[in-house]
Write a structure and sequence with these properties.
With 115 residues, the chain is mainly beta. It has one domain. The protein contains one helix and twelve strands, in the order E-E-E-E-E-E-H-E-E-E-E-E-E. It has a six-stranded mixed sheet with strand order 1-4-6-12-9-8, covered by helices on one side. The radius of gyration is 14 Å and the shape is globular.
Length: 115
């Protein structure tokens, strides 16, 4: 698995920079630290995982907004999070996480690992 933290940086003078990550067609991971600003993670083919070392289950539940409201979170005791459809099958998700004044948008993510 390849780990990514700051792949591409774009920004305007009037707005804080937004970091973009497009990991590629292998299994990748993206570590998000809310203190460094807004980010976007666009998962591609493979098993791409978001790593959120500063969040626990309660904070994630309070901070996450999924685009497809039919999806549910399954948070294991080991900190692994999966997105499940109404039949309990794992699915990729799109949404955003807002916490500590920062926002992470994501697309096509299958799993999250909490800190």
């Amino acid at each position: 698995m390849r780990m990514t933290n700051h792949d591409t940086r774009q920004g305007r003078a009037a707005a804080p920079p937004v970091e973009l990550a497009f990991p590629g067609a292998v299994d990748d991971g993206f570590v998000w630290m809310p203190a460094d600003g807004d980010d976007h993670f666009e998962a591609e083919p493979g098993e791409d995982t978001l790593y959120l070392p500063t969040l626990d289950a309660a904070r994630l539940r309070a901070a996450i907004l999924l685009r497809d409201h039919r999806l549910m979170l399954r948070i294991g005791s080991d900190g692994w999070v999966q997105f499940l459809d109404t039949e309990g099958l794992p699915r990729a998700a799109e949404g955003m996480i807002q916490t500590r004044g920062a926002c992470l948008t994501f697309r096509a993510v299958r799993a999250i690992q909490l800190g």
